[in-house]
Write a structure and sequence with these properties.
This protein is of the alpha+beta class. It has helices at about 5-10, 15-25, 50-65, 110-115, 125-145, 155-170, 175-185, 195-200, 205-215, 220-230; strands at about 30-35, 40-45, 75-80, 85, 90, 95, 100-105, 120, 125, 195, 235. β1 and β2 form a beta hairpin.
Length: about 240
């Protein structure tokens, strides 16, 4: 049995302790990690380099979603990989697999190597946008934990509305306000159609309009109910 120096461990935060014990017991090729400060997050990764960021971003995303009664119902599983992800025919940094109820996530170094100038919302992709990408996939997972709609949609406006709103929410206020100012669009308004077509044409504007709409709703739970029961490619804003 490997002995552990308790004095050495005492300088680490609680989630670091979990990481250390996982390293001691996990196999060399893939290790299991948990976030002690954020429940229901399980991470499989070749090492601990991205684990803290997953824990931090997950905590922020879950906190934001809880305001709208979106809560995880079971474990959210991450698998951090170093290869690109094919999501319905295009490359993605992260992808939620509904069938396996798991999230594939590229490591930040892998993302930076995958393109000469990786971007998110028209900005250079950095650690802050990495947290946003994590939050985006967390939102997809929690959305499916809360909906009774069993129909699989390759693209779904309701999911993307929540995912992009959550993604913007975990950014710093300065970064988020800069993106909002650059887009110069308002929230979705009554009579609008929130659609995947709009998202495909201008994903950043879609994100801003969704975030502004959700955070300014007087009765968010009524709209959340619409989202959870949506079974089409667009949502008519009441």
């Amino acid at each position: 049995m490997l002995k552990i120096n308790i004095n050495f461990l005492s300088k680490f935060k609680p989630y670091h302790l979990v990481i250390i014990f996982a390293l001691l017991s996990g196999p060399a090729h893939a290790q299991q990690f948990y976030c002690a400060e954020v429940s229901l997050i399980e991470i499989t990764a070749p090492n601990d380099s991205m684990v803290e960021d997953v824990c931090i971003a997950s905590g922020k995303a879950i906190s934001f979603l809880s305001k709208y009664s979106f809560l995880p119902k079971r474990a959210i599983k991450f698998q951090i990989i170093t290869t690109s992800i094919n999501s319905h025919g295009y490359s993605a940094y992260g992808s939620y697999d509904r069938q396996n109820d798991a999230i594939l996530l590229m490591s930040l170094p892998s993302i930076k190597k995958s393109s000469q100038f990786p971007e998110m919302y028209g900005q250079p992709f950095d650690i802050e946008h990495y947290h946003g990408a994590i939050a985006h996939e967390i939102a997809h997972a929690i959305f499916h934990h809360n909906t009774s709609n069993t129909k699989e949609q390759l693209t779904n406006a309701a999911q993307e509305y929540i995912a992009h709103s959550t993604q913007l929410s975990v950014l710093s206020d300065k970064r988020r306000q800069g993106i909002i100012k650059a887009m110069d669009v308002g929230p979705w308004e009554s009579g609008d159609s929130i659609s995947v077509t709009y998202m495909s044409l201008n994903p950043t504007a879609f994100a801003v309009k969704s975030y502004l709409h959700l955070t300014q709703l007087q009765d968010p739970q009524a709209f959340v109910k619409i989202l959870l029961n949506n079974n089409w490619f667009f949502i008519s804003v009441p």
